[in-house]
């Protein structure tokens, strides 16, 4: 009984000594590193930052090379847009300077005698009657102004055209008046007439325009003139003294061989 007790005491002392020894020198090996975990979710957006300070312009010369490096590449050319409206016409510019003189022309081939002949084969006139009195019936009308009168073929004092170049002529007249009027182109050899009338019955304030014309084949010495003739005019027409104008024209279309 006493022997078992002593054995138990020895066993307990051995266990106690072993426990004390393990606390001093019995350390385990480091464990292996664990596997990385799955990535976490994105965090919430942060708050907007404060506005920055304005840029400060650099004083002094600008480095062109650095600006070119910052410039982006040129893009493709865009499509052409629609044509805009036509602009206002600009002011007329100043007249340009005179150009240099041109080269002299070739020598003429027209002889002096032929030139004189061509001058003599021309005939044209345009004369105006400005007298406000009514023209006398069956009397040659005379004129106060000659606009054109080549070679003086029409005598403004008598109102008669005398043919100096044989050929085909065109004659016409125009009159403006506030009363009725009848005019006729007269040519001799023998005497023949071509008359025209225009009547103003309703409105004596409006101007009446009368016109007439004829083509004639004339020989040298034949005469042509303009006359007023009586038709259906009333007495007040002939006494009317307001402004009237009569224009008589004639010219050679082409000469004829003698």
Largest sheet: 5 strands, antiparallel
Mean pLDDT: 82
Shape, per Cα inertia axes: rod-shaped
- The number of distinct helices, counting runs of at least 4 residues, comes to 4
Region (Disordered): 29-53, 73-128
Subcellular location: Cell surface; Secreted, Extracellular space, Extracellular matrix
Protein name: Complement C1q subcomponent subunit A
Main location: other
Give structural notes.
There is one protein chain. This protein has helices spanning 2-25, 64-70, 112-120, 235-239; strands at residues 124-129, 145-149, 154-155, 160-162, 167-177, 181-187, 192-198, 208-218, 223-228, 245-255. It is an alpha+beta fold. It has a domain at 120-255: Jelly Rolls (Sandwich). It has a 5-stranded antiparallel sheet, with no helix packed on it. The protein has a 5-stranded antiparallel sheet with strand order 3-4-9-6-7, with no helix packed on it. Strand 6 and strand 7 form a beta hairpin. Pfam families: C1q, Collagen. One of its GO terms (cellular component) is cell surface. This is Complement C1q subcomponent subunit A.
Task: Please summarize what this structure is.
With 258 residues, the chain is α+β, with helices and mostly antiparallel strands. It has helices spanning 2-25, 64-70, 112-120, 235-239, and strands at 124-129, 145-149, 154-155, 160-162, 167-177, 181-187, 192-198, 208-218, 223-228, 245-255.
């Amino acid at each position: 009984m006493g022997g078992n007790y002593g054995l138990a005491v020895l066993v307990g002392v051995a266990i106690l000594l072993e426990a004390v020894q393990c606390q001093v020198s019995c350390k385990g090996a480091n464990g292996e590193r664990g596997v990385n975990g799955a990535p976490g979710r994105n965090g919430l957006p942060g708050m907007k930052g404060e506005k920055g300070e304005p840029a400060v312009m650099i004083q002094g010369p600008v480095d062109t090379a650095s600006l070119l490096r910052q410039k982006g590449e040129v893009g493709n050319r865009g499509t052409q847009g629609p044509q805009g409206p036509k602009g206002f016409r600009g002011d007329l510019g100043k007249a340009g300077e005179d150009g240099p003189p041109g080269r002299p022309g070739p020598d003429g081939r027209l002889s002096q005698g032929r030139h004189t002949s061509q001058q003599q084969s021309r005939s044209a006139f345009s004369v105006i009657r400005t007298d406000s009195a009514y023209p006398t019936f069956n009397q040659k009308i005379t004129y106060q102004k000659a606009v054109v009168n080549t070679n003086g073929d029409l005598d403004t004092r008598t109102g008669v055209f005398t043919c100096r170049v044989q050929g085909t002529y065109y004659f016409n007249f125009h009159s403006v008046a506030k009363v009725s009027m009848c005019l006729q182109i007269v040519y001799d050899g023998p005497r023949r007439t071509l008359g025209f009338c225009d009547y103003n019955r309703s409105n004596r304030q409006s101007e009446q325009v009368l016109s007439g014309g004829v083509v004639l084949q004339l020989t040298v010495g034949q005469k042509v003139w303009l006359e007023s003739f009586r038709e259906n005019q009333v007495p007040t027409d002939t006494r009317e003294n307001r402004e009237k104008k009569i224009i008589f024209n004639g010219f050679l279309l082409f000469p004829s061989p003698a």
